[in-house]
Amino acid sequence: MKKFSQLAVPYIIWAALMIVLPMLLILMYSFTEHGNSIISFAVTFDHYIKFFSDPDFLLVLWRSFTIAVKTTIICLLLGYPLAYFIARSAEKWQNILVLCITIPTWINMLVRTYAWIGLLSDGGLFAQILGFFGVEEVEILYTEFAVLLGMVYNFLPFMILQINTSLCKMDQNLLNASADLGATPFQTFWKVTFPLSLPGVINGITLVFLPAISAFFIPKLLGGGQYFLIGNLIENQFITVGEWNFGSAISMIMAAVMMLLMMLVKKLEVRNQGGKEDN
User: Fold this and answer.
1) pTM as predicted
2) What is the total count of domains within the chain?
3) Would residue 125 count as lying in a domain?
4) Do residues 70 and 64 touch, judged by C-beta distance below 8 A?
């Protein structure tokens, strides 16, 4: 046991330097204001008051929340049938189908998002397809639809893989027993398959919603700066405006929102498993 504890020391040091320390610095910046000298700071809550008292900032937060919810719902509606199809396919095909889902993720997300600019721009593939059907002069790029499409495309594999893992781990004897007891295929799915796959659904929702609500370069590229989300606001405060203290406050607000959502997801997962949450 002591040997394993010693092996964990490098990871603990790395986590302290790369995760804990930056979070503490952001927390400090969010509650402080520069004083008269470089090393002097004044404690203040003005940055948080500024965010919650400005309707424009609250609108950006609400827009980020709604786009994340839409992305998660679409990924769930598309991902569950695909994951179910993969799990019910022959074993020799499952690995191939999973590989087809994961291959796009081998390419950098920024590069994949840039590719959508060419597809959605005027004269691009989508415009040519719509023109073939007689639909002309439809602006797709730099709209909410383009941002939502980019979000779904980038985060859909996370939903599929999580649900597929739960479905593959399911005991097939339960499905056979349900059929032997006279249940229809839909009753078997709704009463047996879906409840047992809920852990994968919950994990998939978490892996999609959290990065979607804080995404910044997808709306920046596909929204053209016209569709401003909370991630873009944080980036703007740090890089463009130079308001590190206000940007840190927004970052802490988002961190608190994500932690609350993760706690909610954990409670739902514990309730679904019929267990009790550890104190």
Assistant:
1) 0.85
2) 1
3) yes
4) no
For residue 170, the domain's CATH number is: 1.10.3720.10
Does the residue 23 lie in any domain?
Answer: no
Is the residue at 99 inside a domain? yes
For residue 167, how many other CB atoms are within 10 A of its CB? 20
Backbone angles phi, psi at 45, to 5 degrees: -105, 10
Q: How far is CA 48 from the centre of its chain?
A: 24
Amino acid (1-letter code) at residue 37: S
Closest CA to 141 of 150, 131, 130, 151: 150
- DSSP letters, 141-173, are TTSHHHHHHHHHHHHHHHHHHHHHHHHHHS-HH
Task: Say which amino acid occupies 225.
Answer: G
Check: CB of residue 192 under 8 Å from CB of residue 175. Answer: yes
| Cβ atoms 258, 206 nearer than 8 A | no
Half-sphere exposure of 168 (CA within 13 A, CB side): 17
Residues 209 and 201: their CA atoms lie apart, in Å, by 12
In a domain, 193, yes or no: yes
CA-nearest of 265, 245, 247, 248 to 200 is 265
Domain encompassing residue 205: 56-273
Copy the structure tokens of residue 232.
């873009």
C-alpha to C-alpha distance for 6 and 10, rounded to whole angstroms: 8
- pLDDT tens digits, 84-127: 999 988 888 898 999 999 998 898 888 999 888 888 888 778 87
Q: How many CA atoms lie within 13 A of 264 on its CB side?
A: 10
